[in-house]
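Might you be able to review the protein record set out just below?
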Amino acid sequence: MKVNVIFDITRTHLLSRLKQSSIAALGVTFGIGTFIVLMSFMTGLNGLLDGLILNRTPHVRIYNEIEPSEVQPIEADEAFSSAWNIIKSVKPKGSEERIHNALPIISTLEKDSRVRGISPQVNASVFYLAGSIELNGVVTGILPLEETRLFNFDEYIVSGSPEALAKNRNGILLGAGVAKKMSLSIGDKIQVSTARGVLVPLKIVGIFQSGLADVDNIQSYVNLSMGQQLLGEGKTYITDINLKLHNIEDAVPMTNEVRRSFDVSAIDIKTANAQFETGTSIRNLITYAVSITLLIVAGFGIYNILNMMIYEKMNDIAILKATGFSGDDVKNIFISQAMLIGLVGGSLGLLLGYSLSVVIDHTPFETEALPTIDTFPVNFDPMFYLGGIIFAMVSTFLAGYLPARKARRIDPVEIIRGQ
């Protein structure tokens, strides 16, 4: 039978039951629309959380773990080799946080084609002094411009800039929690005292806020050279070497290579954020499960409506077969109806999902915990829309296939005799 004839009959059936056809299409529309909104919002939220945590995390962090020696002196003495030695309360001795041969290690890693950039750091425990207020905290010496290039450091600065810190050797980027507790702002002076008694006055050139209160209440940043000066050390004193790679998948093998080659402690980004990545995977799983459930429910709605339509059109089916239409023609008519419902409903669902996503994307969302966020995060990935329309067509085809196969097997003689 010609395709245009089948299409004309399909259109007539759908228009003659416009209310039922519209309800079936609306089921697909709301299913696809909800799928788009859920996927866009949840993946946008996951992207935001990933950005907050993972973008600030180096792909490989090299440091010097302070730990007791694995071989104690008594175990190395042959006189006690056959004895049963019990050693208690072993403490590390003579270890420093500094990475030995840090500059040669940096020089070697800079030549590695997998490395996008390297940012050395110095951490120092300090006391912040301003008037009669005294707070303990941590000052990290950094290369501000490299931190910005590799780890988006500037996104967490709510006042001032990384350039201001880079230009001012005696400058400090103060944590928002510290600044609030000490009633300080840009341009004010603060004194920083170390455990060795070094007291250095610094000028506040910026305020940063990570969104993590535990960090913002103690953490501040100075230039790398100032961090080394606070500890009374020279330019070779480095406590952390943070690596950003071109491909995050190289993090694990490169971490193992660094341990073997330089005899230092190192941790990759996946190990350091294993619990966070597990949480992200669970959130994605829940999102997909809810979205697919909505689409399946919409598919059952289409199945029910088409099934009822076949019962109502038994006479029409009998007449079609009596006038020369084959069983396959009748099946194609009802499958075409389901596909048209899926196409129209799915297209409207994409439009509905996009419209709601735009509304969410422009909805104000202001919180002190996330100072760089103004609106709710939404991910407008085109793959969601492509997946939505494909799922709409597949689900409506499956929903229409069983009723269509049933219509194909209808015997016109039995229908006419039953009248």
Summary: The two ends are 27 Å apart (CA to CA).
